[in-house]
Every structure is written in C-alpha cells, then in structure tokens.
Amino acid sequence: MSMQTNIIIAGVGGQGTVLASKLVARAAMDAGLRVRTSETIGMAQRGGSVVSHVRVSDAPIASPLMAPGMADVLIGFEPGEAVRSLAFLRPGGTVVTNAQPVAPVAISPASAAYSGQAMLERLDGCGARLAVIDGASICAEIGSLKVLNVALLGAAAGLGALGFSLDQFETAIRESVRERFVDMNIRALHAGARSASA
Amino acid sequence: MHPWHSAGSRVDKAIVEALHRHAFRYGDDGGPVVARGRSSTIGVSWGLGSTVSSPWGACCVATEFLMGNEAIALGAIAAGVGVVTGYPGTPSSEILPTVAQRNPGRVHVEWSTNEKVALEVAAGAAYAGARTLVTMKQVGLNVASDPLMSLAYVGVKGGMVIVVADDPGPISSQTEQDTRTFGLFSKLPVFDPASPEEAYAMIGDAFALSERYGTPVLFRPTTRVCHGNAPVEVGDLSAPPAPDGFVKDPKWVIFPRLAYQSHLRIEQRLPQIAEEFSDYRFNAVSGSGRIGIATQGISSAYVAEALAALGDAVPEHRLLRVATPHPFPRRLALEFLEGLDQVLVVEELDPVIERELLRLAGECHLPVTVLGKGTGHVQQAGENGVDSVTRALAGFLGLEVAPAADCSASAGEGAEPPVRPPVLCAGCPHRASFLAVKEAMRKRKAVFGGDIGCYTLGNAKPLDMVDTCLCMGASVTVAQGLHVVEPDAVHFAFIGDSTFFHTGIPGVINAVYNQTPIVLVVLDNSTTAMTGLQPHPGTGETMMGAVAQQIDIATVLRGLGVKHVESCDPLNHDAAKAAVLRAVEATAEGVSALIFEAPCIHVASSGPRYVVNEDACKCQLCITRLGCPAISRVDGKMRIDDDLCYGCDLCAQMCPFDAIERVEPTEGRA
Ligand code: SF4
Ligand code: SF4
C-alpha cells in the first residue's frame, strides 16, 4: 500500500514558509521516503503571496507542483492566504491556519478593511478539518516571532495530518536548525501541537 | 474520485506505472533509467549507469536535499569547475553563492558587473583550459549575447557551461523569452533538465560535450527546476585539477576569414552533435501506438502526472522527451514520428520541439499532424501546470475530465482574501527617496524613469513614481530620449547601485557627452536587494570573501564629467527634498546627479519603534502618501504594526499633527 502526503504551505513573503517545507522534507528523507518541494522565490518575497508545495511519497513523484484538489493538508500562515490556496485542498483534507491576519498595505483611506475573521469563517465552512492556531500567543510564549512556522508544523503534526510524529520533527529540527535555535523551535513545535489538540 | 486526486492507491500505482513505462527518471533509486539501451554509434560514453559523470569522482558521497540551483552548483563542482562567474537574476541567483559556499578551495567565484562581463571573464579562463560556469537569467543572456555569438565561433578549450534560467509565467521577469531559441540562433548546444537531480547529473555531461567539441554550451533550467527541491546524490566535491594554461594561437583572435571557417565548422559539427544527442541518456522514446506526445523539462513531469490521472482511459501512445533541444536529436525524433498519425507537443515558452517535428515531418513526407501551441492545443503564453496539461491531453485524446473537486467551492461565497502585490519593505529607504522627489516635484512637470530592482516596486500606489521601465540601465537612456522630445519637463532616472554598475554607466557618459540634462538619482542601498542581497563593486566585498576596494559612485560620476553630484540621506525628508530641488536647478548646467545613500533594511539593523497617538491622529496622510506595510487602519485610526515597523522615522516626519511618536525599544527584537 503506498502512502502519499501532499502539503500546501501558504503565507506572505517574509513569514518563514521555506523552513517549514524544509523540515517536512528532512523528516521524509530520514524516514526513507521520497520528497519533492517547490518554493516561491523572487519578487513575491517582498510581502506578496508565497506558496510552497511539498510532496512526500514512498513511490516516485513526478511533479513538484500540485494541481487543484491534490493536497491533503493546507498550512496557512495567515487566514486569507489559507483561503486563497483552498483550491489545492482535496475535499475532506485538513487546514491548519494561524489566526492572526497580515494586513495588506493600506494605500488609501478607503482601502477596504481586511477581516481575518471573515476568512476564518470561510475556512470553517469549506468541508475540511480545521484547526485555528493562535500563533501570536505561541510566539509570545516562546519569545520569538520566528517560530510561527514550527508552531504551525507542530499543530499539523499533532493532528497526525503530516504522516510524521512530533519526535520525527524534533529530529528534523536538530538536523536542520542552528544549534542555539534548536530548543526554542522544539518548544514551539510542542506548543503548536498542544494548541491544535486543545 | 476526480482525476487529479492522487492520494489513492490506484492513482499512485498509475503514476508509478506511467513513470516506468516511459522510463523517465524522477528521483528513482539507482542510476538513470532513461537509458536508450544501446551503445552510441560514435563511441561516446554518456556515463550510462553512473549517477555522477564527473571524471574526478564518480561515487555518491552523500544524499542532500537540494534546490535545483544548488544541485547545478554542486554538479559543476563535482565536474571540476575552476572558474564561476555570473550576475544575479531570478530564478538563477542561488547557483553562484552555492559554489562560493561549497568552494573546495580552488574555484574562483565572482559576481561580475554584468552578464557580458561574466561571460568574457569565463571565456578567458576557458581559453586557458579551466572548466567554467557562467550563471544568469534569460534576459541576462541578451546582455551577454555579443560575446556569446562570437564565442560560438572562436570556441573554448576548457569546458564552458552557460546556465541561463528561463522564467515561464513570467514570475519575476520582463519577458518570456526561450533560451532554447537562443541556442538555435547562436548555434550552440542546449541542455534542458527536468528536475534538480537530473540537473546535477546533466551538468557533467554538458562540460564533457563542451570540451569534446570545443564549444560553449547552454544549460537551460526553468523556474520550477531552479526552485524545486529534491534529494540529490552528491559526489566528490574535492578541488578541481589545475588547467594547463593559455597557449598562444591565432585561433583566439576572431577575424572575418576565421569567422567564415568557424561558421563552416559549426555547420558541420551540428549534425554530429545531433546524432550524438539521439543516444543521449536523458532523451527518450517509449511506448507504442499511432498517437504521440512530445515534451521537455518540467512539462514532462506534468505529462506524467496527467497520464496517471487520466488512468486506464489513456489509449496506447508513444512518448518523446527531449532534453537536448538543440541541435535537435533528429534520428531519435524520426524514430518517434514514424507511424504516428497525431502528435501533441507539450512544452513551455517557444514551440521549439513543435517546429522541429513539423520540419522533420515535412522533410521526410510523414503523414503526421503536429498539434501544440501553433494549433491552439497548448497555451501560447504563461506557465504549464498539471491541470492545464491534463486538460490539453484530455482534449487531444478525446477524454472527458471532470473538474477537480477541491475545497474552494465548498468554502462558499464571501469576502475574498486581500490583493497582495509585492511592495517595498517597511522602512525601505527607496520609499523615502521616491517621496522626496515626489514632494519636491509636486508643482512641476516631471517624468520618473525607473529601472530593474526592488525600486521598480515604487510604481505601486500611493507612491506611483515609476513612469517607465524597460531593461537594466534604461532609466538613464530612456530619460534622454524623452528629454529630446519634451524638453520642458524634468526627466528623472532612478537607478539602483548594482544596476548603475551593471549597465548604467555608459548611459551617463552618453548624457554628459550629448549634453542632455537629465536628473540621475542613484538609489544606493549598498546591496543587490531584489535577488537576495548579493555584493557588487560598490560594497567592498567579493564572493571570495576578500575585502575589495569599494568603488565610490560619486567619484565615478565626477570622473565621467557630471558637474553637480550630491549625496544625501533620503530618510531626512526635508534635507532630501532640498537636495532634489538643487539637483533640478543644476540641470541648467547639464546632467546632474543625486545619490540617495541608505542601506537596505536587510543589511542594516533596525531603529526605534513608533506608535500612533490616536488622539492626535487626524489626516491619514501616512496612508495616502507612504504606503508603508507596517501602517494600517484599524477602526478608523492608524496603527503601526510593531513587528513590521523598522523604525525608519519617515512617517513621523511626514505627519503634520505630530501624531506618530517614537518609543525606544524595550527589548531586543526577534
Ligand atoms: S529588500 Fe531592501 S531594497 Fe528591497 S524593498 Fe526591502 S528594504 Fe527596500
Ligand atoms: S517608522 Fe513609520 S514609515 Fe518607517 S517602517 Fe515604521 S511605520 Fe513604516
């Protein structure tokens, strides 16, 4: 029986999506699985929408990019970006999203206000299993804004959506992150997992 | 189950079968499976069966998770590259820094001032026998095309691989040009890898071919290969052997007589290389039947997914994958075409394979119909994807595809996510520079010429300060043409520091010489920001780590004869505005230059924090004039996002009600 997990990681340039996909890849390689990922690098990294495609399988993977409906898991670093990427998610998939919206640049007093709540409501109705993570409190608890990525990963792993255990991610973190940041990231991983199960 | 969904075992099995049936190599274990299964007719070994074709170490030392660009870099090191040059440009920028990072010690790595310079430096090294790698994006090859065209005639001694990354979409480029077509034009061989692991292996092949024929070769990955990641088996990266050195010979001097002979030689060798390519390990024909699918690069991955998704309904077919589009592997393609009624060509950018197949069909009177971009069966512009290729294949094969079920429909109607165009960072000094010029020119007729870099984003509202943008360096020259026709307006040219060194300087000389009074505004942020903070001649650093002499832009401009040259800090708004007015005044004497000096926020450390005093906040001017991503409106009041604010102070200076207040940071920032 073959296994395959397709993950979309959606966020805003600068939010640290790339490390999240690297950690999944590391865990996959450690588990002897195949993995292919694709990143958004370039102009969009300046505050635009960025999407990573991560594909893990025990069989050869052809395309690094997914088509609509192919993803099992959608990790949103920001609720609006999660909504934007919903087309990738298969019916019955899992959405793990950070609760806090990132406001787009306001260019005129009339610019429509952007409500993260409206986005969360749409996610709620999409037919996927949904976990909303209070990323800001986890970051505050850990003491760094940079751990949002690992916290979200922890949440998805805690739900069993990624096919890897928290232990496997701990190992991946030790292998991929600079030593002085390891502890902080491992704490974030578990905080994420706890908040998803809460 | 809808056809795209691949989580089920049936589809999985179909993918695996499709992959094996067509013997593509997608991160499969062991050696390349795309073996043509017969020995080359001219006795050339393509290193079949080994994963690494480097002559200096053919064993896999470690499996690393690499981005395609990193794989290219390590492949080049494993192949014994001695000199690496290039100019940054998405999606190629990560190749050269990876070589620098993994430098075994004897590789000379440099960011050159532009692509033409990079190619010429590499040519010299290749004349002296070193293996050389040159990296750039597709539009960079336009800049390097002068030496490229001649070098094709002169040739090289050490292998030379020119990596030119194409950008279907385009995602971060000004054109959708196809470097395979440039290969045809320059008569150079072209390699077109489909994945990071293939790119790693192919680089060694490219060096070997280059040396065998004494010709530079083009190596053309696309964005999804450059920025895709996969585990790659990496071989021995120890130091390359020392080249023999330069041997004087008339062949290194191009003359019309020599050019004629070279042209003949090139025309004679192209069919030989094409013949060799027909046996190349990454070119393949597989399957059987009367219909065919031809593809290349990343599109071949989409084709494999699409065939797997369409599953058992797919009729018997033949598949051609072309990894070396020029010179076209004619014998292999004929083998593919023979007996076919219809072919669909799935490729990105130009219809290169499509044209070649059409030509072959005509030449050999084959009764086959070739469908693709020319016939509207494949999109003419933009990027392919698994979904678009599945639709194209389904249409071609006469199959029904149910639209993919996904979660977007069930999410229902409602508020849409906000539009998120890329913007200048919070605290970006370019914002301050644009604002100073904008405010100073409020009542004047002025045209704002832009150039290529982060500062192109100054076109966004509310700044709206980029009226033209053409190509690297063109801000300076387009402004001159505009001035000639419209002398009553002030013509500004905004150019970044790296772009100034790249191709800006000849334009300045032109303006001084022809007495065209433009206002040159150099946005000096001490880095090449857009492509990932590469150093350049003005930064005093090189890729070899040495501290180089810093080239001072003001001194350069004075040396070129620009009389009014002033440097100032754009973040001091009033002083900057006054400096703009002085520069405009000075155009009475000819070209004038203003250098706005302030580092990109990514190479400097952040300042104090700012908060909005809600009671004093009245006008919303910070939003209507600045467009700083850290400032948003919450319940009718302005709010500064503490995490995003960089502390540049610009909003505080702009606020007429002094409502934006500075607070000292309480603790270190993450
Ligand atoms: S990366 Fe630097 S130059 Fe580019 S927008 Fe951000 S601050 Fe400005
Ligand atoms: S000080 Fe004002 S303009 Fe500068 S980054 Fe902070 S909010 Fe933006």
From TrEMBL, chain A:
It comes from the Bacteria. GO terms for molecular function: oxidoreductase activity, acting on the aldehyde or oxo group of donors. InterPro entries: IorB_Oxidoreductase, Pyrv/ketoisovalerate_OxRed_cat, Pyrv_flavodox_OxRed_cen. Residues 13-193 form the Pyruvate/ketoisovalerate oxidoreductase catalytic domain. Keywords: Oxidoreductase, Pyruvate. Pfam families: POR. This is Indolepyruvate oxidoreductase subunit IorB.
TrEMBL record, chain B:
Keywords: 4Fe-4S, Iron, Iron-sulfur, Metal-binding, Oxidoreductase, Pyruvate. One of its GO terms (molecular function) is indolepyruvate ferredoxin oxidoreductase activity. Its cofactor is [4Fe-4S] cluster. [4Fe-4S] cluster 2 binds at C628, C645, C648, C651. Gene3D superfamilies: 3.30.70.20, 3.40.50.970. InterPro entries: 4Fe4S_Fe-S-bd, 4Fe4S_Fe_S_CS, HACL1-like, IorA, Pyrv_Fd/Flavodoxin_OxRdtase_N, THDP-binding, TPP_enzyme_TPP-bd. It is an enzyme of class 1 (oxidoreductase). One of its GO terms (biological process) is small molecule metabolic process. The keyword GTP-binding does not apply. It comes from the Bacteria. Its EC number is 1.2.7.8. It holds the Pfam family Fer4. Binds 2 [4Fe-4S] clusters. In this family the first cluster has a non-standard and varying [4Fe-4S] binding motif CX(2)CX(2)CX(4-5)CP. Residues 636-665 form the 4Fe-4S ferredoxin-type domain. [4Fe-4S] cluster 1 binds at C617, C619, C622, C655. NCBIfam families: IOR_alpha. This is Indolepyruvate ferredoxin oxidoreductase subunit alpha. It comes from Imhoffiella purpurea.
